[in-house]
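pls design
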């Protein structure tokens, strides 16, 4: 029987070679279709039953669910990861998996095809050995953008009556257990002005001037927000249509990262407090997600302790970014642990193959022990 660590690394090279750039981020990009087909063929050959789950109204944005036949009475674990990647601008050979020592380079290597490869190898090993645990692979689309894949898969699992005991999200954590992750809120600000010829600027109201003052206020406020565990920044701005005209409109997107115990309404309050009422600005919350903390007790906490003990890590990682753990927590207790590297979303992305092997070789035994005690 193939060692799960060796199987995971071989699969990782194949996955990196498949373009799965998210078309929600890069119009016209490949999406998840080819990588879903690759994994579907492999998992069916390994004896798992697969289901392709499209995002609502988007048949070209598939996710993949795979599970053993039968075993509904066994302790059930969802093994989750996302198949989409960010874009490849500036990369010379993004889909050529290059191994340099213990590093594998390529788009998606760390975020998060390394985690995908590890959990797929674990699920195959559990099925092949008849382990007393039921692995359900939930390999989803669109995590990097609108989370359409997990939303669709969660609905599909509920409809099928799948009631997992726990979910492991294999996002990159350096194999530490994730203790918390921050939520986020995206706020759009529209700043009206009044047009006039630029030679008679006193007849107009310059919306871009108001925008500049808002940007300064955001920057000045950011240090205090960071000190409280969050973050605040402007990420998209626009204003004006042409030279020689006082701009009558401007807009800004302000993003706020939120500690796990703070809600998105606080982001609206933060932005509103930075606006001069005389500007007549409008504020809209266009996207938001709650933060998350690892349960202090229960199935996820128990599995986290077991996995950390086997890996030599602990629940020490507080993620500055958001993952889909809060969405899976609505279905069952959830933990986050996966292999890391460097260059996430950058041109030099890589994953540590030692961590990929370690997770693939360790997780199966940990799940068997957890399942026996749970049963």
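designed seq:
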């Amino acid at each position: 029987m193939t060692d799960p660590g060796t199987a995971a690394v071989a699969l990782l090279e194949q996955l990196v070679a498949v373009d799965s750039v998210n078309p929600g981020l890069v119009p016209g990009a490949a999406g998840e279709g080819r990588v879903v087909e690759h994994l579907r063929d492999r998992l069916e050959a390994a004896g798992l039953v697969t289901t392709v789950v499209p995002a609502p109204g988007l048949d070209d944005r598939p996710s993949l669910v795979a599970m053993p036949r039968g075993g509904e009475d066994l302790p059930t674990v969802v093994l989750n990861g996302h198949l989409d990647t960010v874009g490849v601008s500036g990369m010379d050979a993004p889909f050529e998996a290059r191994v340099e020592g213990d590093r594998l380079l390529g788009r998606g290597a760390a975020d998060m095809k390394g985690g995908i490869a590890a959990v797929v190898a674990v699920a195959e090993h559990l099925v092949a050995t008849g382990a007393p645990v039921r692995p359900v692979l939930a390999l989803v689309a669109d995590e990097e953008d609108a989370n359409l894949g997990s939303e669709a898969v969660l609905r599909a699992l509920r409809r099928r009556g799948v009631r997992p005991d726990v979910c492991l999200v294999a996002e990159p954590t350096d194999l530490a257990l994730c203790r918390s992750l921050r939520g986020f809120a995206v706020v759009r600000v529209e700043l009206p002005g009044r047009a006039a010829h630029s030679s008679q600027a006193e007849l107009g109201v310059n919306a871009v001037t108001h925008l500049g003052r808002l940007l300064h206020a955001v920057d000045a406020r950011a240090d205090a927000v960071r000190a409280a565990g969050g973050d605040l920044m402007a990420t998209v701005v626009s204003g004006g249509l042409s030279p020689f005209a006082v701009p009558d409109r401007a807009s800004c997107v302000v993003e706020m990262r939120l500690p796990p115990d703070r809600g998105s309404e606080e982001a609206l309050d933060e932005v509103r407090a930075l606006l001069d009422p005389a500007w007549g600005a409008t504020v809209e919350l266009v996207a938001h997600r709650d933060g998350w903390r690892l349960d202090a007790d229960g199935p996820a906490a128990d599995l986290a302790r077991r996995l950390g003990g086997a890996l030599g890590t602990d629940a020490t990682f507080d993620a500055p970014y958001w993952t889909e753990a809060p969405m899976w927590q609505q279905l069952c207790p959830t933990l986050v642990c996966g292999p890391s590297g460097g260059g996430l979303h950058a041109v030099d992305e890589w994953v540590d193959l030692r961590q990929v092997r370690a997770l693939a070789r360790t997780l199966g035994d940990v799940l068997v022990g957890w399942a026996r005690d749970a049963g």
